[in-house]
Specification:
By secondary structure, the protein is α/β, with parallel strands linked by helices. It contains eight helices and twelve strands.
């Protein structure tokens, strides 16, 4: 029997525990999955000390980048992305970091293609956003990234206008805005310029229909939440742990 889990902060919204618990029950497995809601990533060592049977962990907001210095080794792709969302604890107790977000995103996105042009507006700058950007770059998308604050080679939300929205047919919300319990929140973009040729993809999956999705759908855009991405990346994480 092995134990797995999720580390993050304010992770009550997460479906990961439910997803893995159901999967283990379906497989008649005695494995278990726990949430470790911690205010500081430095508490990772304490979690491992108190849970000797942990074989793997998922990592979510806000620790996908800050966990990297605490690992013994990092997979080549995770290193290229600059973020880790999966940790394998090997037989020697070494922590090896991987990224399965990019696998989850590319498989979820493939189900929604084609898009009129390979031009994407990326909202956010965090760890999940890095995995999405990595995928889009490998797919030869032209990417425009948006940050709350002015950063090199990025726009701010106040920079967004009809021209920018009309040129980017894929708009991806990589921010936590709209995630349960703050379901009233949404990225501040000019939704009025969206059309039926746009795809609005929200990495959030709780709630099922975010304000970002609702406001986009009203303008005719196709919409998707992040549940398929969650499923794909979770299955990939399990495959890594079981290797």
């Amino acid at each position: 029997m092995a134990k797995y889990g999720l580390i993050g902060n304010n992770i009550g919204y997460s479906f990961s525990k439910t997803f893995f618990t159901i999967k283990f029950e379906q497989e008649n497995s005695q494995d278990s999955y726990c949430n470790f809601d911690i205010p500081n990533i430095e508490q990772l060592s304490e979690i491992l000390k108190n849970n000797k049977d942990i074989k793997g962990l998922n990592v979510t907001i806000p620790y996908k980048e800050s966990v990297i210095p605490l690992l013994d080794k990092i997979d080549k792709e995770a290193s290229a992305i600059g973020a880790v969302n999966t940790i394998k604890i090997n037989e020697k107790g070494k922590l090896i970091g991987y990224n399965t977000d990019h696998f989850g995103f590319v498989n979820a996105l493939m189900e929604l293609l084609p898009i009129k042009e390979k031009k994407a507006l990326l909202l956010g700058t965090g760890g999940a956003c890095k995995a999405v950007r990595y995928v889009l770059e490998t797919m030869n998308f032209e990417i425009t990234q948006v940050s709350r604050t002015k950063k090199e080679n990025m726009l701010t939300y106040s920079d967004l206008n009809r021209s920018i929205i009309s040129q980017n047919y894929l708009i991806i919300n990589c921010t936590p805005l709209g995630t349960f319990p703050n379901v009233h929140e949404f990225p501040d973009i000019p939704y009025e310029f969206l059309t039926k040729e746009h795809l609005a993809f929200d990495l959030t999956y709780n709630p099922h229909d975010t304000q970002f999705m609702k406001r986009s759908k009203v303008k005719g855009a196709r919409v998707s939440n992040g549940f398929k991405m969650l499923e794909y990346q979770a299955k990939k994480s399990l495959a890594i742990w079981k290797l």
